Amino acid sequence: MHFHSRYSDGALWPAQLAALALAAGLQAAALTDHDTLAGAPEFCSAAAELGLVAWPAVEIDCVDGPSGYRSELLAYFPDGSYERTAALLVDVRAERRRIVAGLFDRAAGLMGASGLSFERYEERELASRPSFAPPIAVGELRYGKPDLHRALVQEGLLDKSVSYKEFKKAYLKTGLLGPANFPKPSVQELCRVVAADGGHCSIPHPAHFLDDDPARLKAEGLKLRAMLERLKGLGVGYLELYAYPKKADALNKLIWKEAQALGYGLTYGSDDHGPGSGTAAIGSFHGDFIGFPAAAGAGKA
């Protein structure tokens, strides 16, 4: 119930991911691209043809000042309607696109690489769709800092052995390429819009809030509890059990206890980004999902 396609920062297209979900033995799944629902129709259509239960879904960057939450929310739309949420994300993607294009320009100047161009990169992305699939409109893809890393590798300006994490530390966190602060709606606004579409919000990888550290989750339990109580009050109804790279069992046990104490439902996510991404593969982490209130009876996701 949590993975990404080429519409954001994944390696594969939605129909390919639906086939992988079925091959992994899942009964239900949801594509959750960052800040875009443009791939949802393709994924849900492919899933239906394969006999796989699927819901339109998205993962949205957001913030909540009072609780200190600065991460994302997953939003699921079991009734298939998400017009208000999609409209909210149009401006978010447009501003991200503008900011990323600026990063490309500054990187080109810093590296003396006149051939490095966001427009050229975008053209390649739009042209990379399989020939049988409908074309993508400009503005439907969600861009981020990893796109610059990918472009630098493609252009031979960065060795392919340099990971995005290493690139981020050297060029972005140091401010070498200047500021790149992306717009993020508030959790309160996001919950309101998703609810108006009949959707449901889940907190992805909630242990990230305390650095995926079981000891911190135990020691700072009151801080975690306060954040979870606040977000539940704003309308978030689910916590995600997640394929944490390390200590997943211990972390998920603690999150499960919080979910039980506060009345949260549970969703399940691998956060797969495709081959070579280093994330858990689709089907390697799943759970028995009881279904959303508007779509009860969904099977194992």
Secondary-structure topology with pairs:
Elements: H1 14-23, E1 28-29, H2 40-50, E2 53-54, E3 57-64, E4 69-76, H3 83-111, H4 118-127, H5 145-154, H6 164-172, H7 187-196, E5 200-203, H8 214-219, H9 221-234, E6 238-242, H10 248-262, E7 265-269, E8 291-292, E9 295-296
Parallel strand pairs: 1-2, 5-6, 6-7
Antiparallel strand pairs: 3-4, 4-5, 8-9
Helix pairs in contact: 1-2
Summarize the structure.
By secondary structure, this protein is α/β, with parallel strands linked by helices.
Describe this structure in words.
The chain has 301 residues and is α/β, with parallel strands linked by helices. The protein has two domains: 14-90 and 184-296, TIM Barrel, CATH 3.20.20.140; 105-172, no CATH class. The chain has helices spanning 14-23, 40-50, 83-111, 118-127, 145-154, 164-172, 187-196, 214-219, 221-234, 248-262, and strands at 28-29, 53-54, 57-64, 69-76, 200-203, 238-242, 265-269, 291-292, 295-296. β6, α10 and β7 form a beta-alpha-beta unit. The chain is globular.
How many DSSP-defined strands?
A: 9
Query: What does the overall shape look like?
Result: globular
Q: For the report, how would you describe the main beta sheet?
A: 5 strands, mixed
Please write the CATH class name of the largest domain. Alpha Beta
Number of domains: 2
Q: CATH superfamily of the largest domain, called what?
A: Metal-dependent hydrolases
Main-sheet strand order equals 3-4-5-6-7
